[in-house]
Specification:
With about 575 residues, this protein is of the alpha/beta class. The protein has a domain of about 300 residues: ABC transporter transmembrane region fold (Up-down Bundle), CATH 1.20.1560.10. About 65% of the residues lie in helices and about 10% in strands. The chain is built from 18 helices and ten strands. The strands form two sheets. A six-stranded mixed sheet has the order 6-7-8-3-9-10. The longest helix is centred in the middle third of the chain and has 53 residues. Bound molecules: adenosine-5'-triphosphate. The site of adenosine-5'-triphosphate has 12 residues, from helix 10.
């Protein structure tokens, strides 16, 4: 566990040395009281106790209490503030680490799992580091010191005490193995629950329209029931070891009293020593009971540290350390094959070359691999075989963040942030001026509707921009891409039927955006791509045909058939109308 913690907090762990030393000093200071008590009892029973002695002992106790309070508060504050800072850094590091991972990682792990790691595991880690650590240190240091002290009073009785402790600790450990096992189960169920809740909230529209709310509600209540059952099971299964530990810890005093009485009657221990020993055993027994809670929290820390370590151990997409800059923006696929899950290949031996500044249309039936080609260009995933080159450079040499500077994306589902419209557009280029932002909005034909909103550009969008229409959302995404002005553009043409006005505006905005760029457009309507420099027809992850509109029509192959098909469909609609 210490290894995991060290790995997570690294050299910053040294910052905890001072608070740990202060906590240990406080624990040592707490023994002063026991020592004064011991002296008082010794003098009392031997009839040498005087008023001066009592006054001196009281003063020593008072000073030690004040000093301890100062030391404890400083140690606790340092532990709390430094621990909290470490954990907030860790949280940022983890969020940043997630950003560097391939999208494949997010495919394999549910959003509930990722959220639970980022929130619950980190909170548990933080809680132990900032609050529990001080009390654990105090308990351990005091326990060791009191036990050592009892050896000085009477080693035989101290050995008897050790026997009780040696029986208690394995029982505690056994109980906590179970606590850990059920903790893991509860964590898995909690992440499942978080996933279900997220899906429930995000998909509310679909659930309502398909009248599925009750089905989903049932899934949620089943998971809650599983959590409840696991909690009950955990309580039942751990009840035996926990109770046994408690019995043994509480038995320490009577056991020592019993052995001590025999030793006293046999003349091996004086009455003063026996009383002092009893007092220390009382304290030791209280520490043993307190340790049960701390040990349980240590197990939680272990589980949280393990989960966090696993998240950090996932390797980001590799790239060359030295900065690779691109001067040209032609895109070449060379014998590219790809599989999302390393089992089913979804792209097979794809090869094409898109010239710099040209437009390539990707067409094909649903599931043929159009979006996958676009995802690979942006290096959201790495190819399984072959290579993709931009400007002659294999994109695996480029830092994924650096590569994305050269690429703008306008997808069907555009991600709008729960921020102002102004900041949503600005996300395209952080250092853009207000003038540039407004000019991008004008070019994207969204300025007119933005200024009509009561708060204009400062209108705050709800999560995902749900307060805007589909066309408006898309135009804001286009404005963002215009502002970014990246040389490569990935465009997923909207499948949604927009009204004529919206469609015309979006087309004008796109014309502006596409000028001079290397464009890949995932096209759903064939009439929009007739002027593309090349059309790639995908089917079942393979290139069926490739060429210009005229070439492919002449060939009378798949593309020709698709055009005919769409033409027929249009005629039916016109006839039907
Ligand atoms: N994240 C993913 N994980 C696993 N498989 C995926 C993933 N995304 C897509 N696939 C699979 O890869 C194949 C190609 O999908 P892709 O989305 O590229 O097709 P598409 O041509 O863009 O489809 P559409 O026109 O419906 O958007 C499909 O079989 C799909 O099921």
């Amino acid at each position: 566990m210490l290894h995991s913690i060290k790995k997570l907090i690294g050299d910053k762990g040294r910052q905890l040395i001072v608070p740990i030393v202060l906590m240990s000093l406080d624990a040592i200071g707490s023994l002063v009281m026991y020592l004064m008590l011991y002296f008082t009892v010794v003098h009392l029973l031997s009839g040498t106790l005087s008023g001066t002695l009592v006054r001196n002992y009281t003063i020593v106790c008072l000073i030690s209490v004040i000093l301890r309070l100062i030391i404890y508060r400083s140690g606790y504050f340092l532990c709390f503030s430094r621990g909290a800072k470490m954990c907030s850094n860790l949280r940022l590091q983890l969020a940043n680490h997630y950003r560097s991972l391939s999208l494949g990682y997010f495919n394999q792990n549910s959003s509930g799992y990722l959220l639970t790691t980022l929130t619950k595991d980190l909170s548990n880690f933080e809680l132990v580091l900032t609050h529990t650590l001080p009390s654990i240190i105090k308990t351990l240091v005091m326990g060791v010191l009191i036990l050592t002290g009892t050896f000085f009073i009477n080693w035989k009785l101290a050995l008897a005490e050790c026997v009780v402790i040696l029986i208690a600790l394995p029982i505690l450990h056994q109980g906590n193995v179970l606590v850990e096992k059920y903790g893991k189960m509860k964590r898995d169920l909690t992440s499942k629950m978080v996933s279900i809740v997220l899906e429930y909230i995000k998909g509310m529209k679909v659930f309502k329209s398909a009248n599925m709310t009750s089905t989903h509600f049932a899934r949620m209540s089943d998971t809650l029931e599983d959590i409840r059952k696991t909690n009950v099971q955990a309580e039942v299964k751990t009840a035996v070891p926990t109770s046994m530990y408690s019995i043994v810890a509480n038995f320490l005093l009577p056991f020592v009293l019993l052995i001590g009485s025999y030793l006293f009657l046999g003349g091996s221990i004086a009455s003063q020593q026996l009383v002092a020993f009893m007092l220390m055993s009382l304290a030791l027994s209280a520490l043993l009971i307190a340790f049960e809670h701390s040990y349980g929290l240590l197990k939680e820390l272990r589980l949280a540290a393990f989960n966090l370590e696993q998240a950090f151990d996932t390797k980001p997409l590799p790239y060359r350390e030295e900065q690779v800059t691109l001067k040209h923006f032609d895109v070449a696929f060379d014998h590219v094959s790809f599989s999302y899950n390393l089992q089913t290949e979804v792209l097979h031996d794809i090869g094409f070359h898109a010239k710099e500044g040209s437009t390539t249309a990707l067409i094909g039936p649903s599931g043929s691999g159009k979006s996958t080609v676009a995802n690979l260009i942006a290096r959201f995933f790495d190819v399984t075989k072959g290579s993709i080159r931009i400007g002659g450079k294999d994109i695996r040499q480029l830092n994924p963040d650096g590569l994305l500077q050269y690429i703008s994306e306008v997808f069907q589902e555009n991600t709008l942030l729960s921020d102002t419209i102004y900041n949503n557009i600005k996300a395209g280029r952080e250092n853009a001026t207000e003038e540039e932002i407004i000019s991008a909005a004008k070019a994207a034909h969204c300025h007119e509707f933005i200024v009509k909103l009561p708060k204009g550009y400062q209108t705050k969008l709800s999560e995902g921009g749900n307060t805007l229409s589909g066309g408006e959302k898309q135009r804001i995404a286009i404005a963002r891409a215009i502002l970014k002005d990246a040389p490569i553009l990935l465009l997923d043409e909207s499948t949604a039927s927009l009204d004529a006005d919206n469609e015309a505006k979006i087309n004008q905005a796109l014309d502006h955006l596409m000028k001079g760029k290397t464009v890949f457009v995932i096209a759903h309507r064939l009439n929009t791509i007739q002027n593309a420099d090349q059309i790639i027809v995908l089917n079942d992850g393979k290139i069926e045909e490739m060429g210009t509109h005229d070439m492919l029509l002449k060939k009378q192959g798949h593309y020709y058939a698709m055009v005919q098909e769409q033409q027929k469909a249009k005629e039916w609609i016109v006839k039907g109308a």
